[in-house]
Known about the structure:
This protein is an all-alpha fold. The chain has helices at 23-26, 30-100.
Amino acid sequence: MAPKAKKGKKSKKKKEPEEPIDPDLVSMAGDKLSAELAQIRDKLEASKIERNATQLEKDFIMDYYTNVKQEIDDYNAKIKNFDTSLQKLEEDHRMELKVYD
C-alpha cells in the first residue's frame, strides 16, 4: 500500500486588531456610558432608516428609467416600421406611375 499523505498544519486564525478605545469613554461613569450607547444606537437606527429610504428612491428611479427607456425603444421601432411602410408605398406608387406612362 502507498503511504498516506500528510496533512498540513492548521494555521491559527489571527485575531483582528481591536480599535483603540477612546480615553473619554474609559473615564466615563456607567450611567453616562449607557446614555452614550443609547445615543449611538439611535444614530445607527436613524442612519439605517435613511439608507433604506435612499435605496428605495434609487430603486424607484432605476425602475422609472428602464420603463421610459423601453417606451422610447418601442416608439423608435414603431417609427422605423412606419418609415419602412412609407418607403414601400412610395416604391409601389413609382412602379404604378412607370406602368401607366
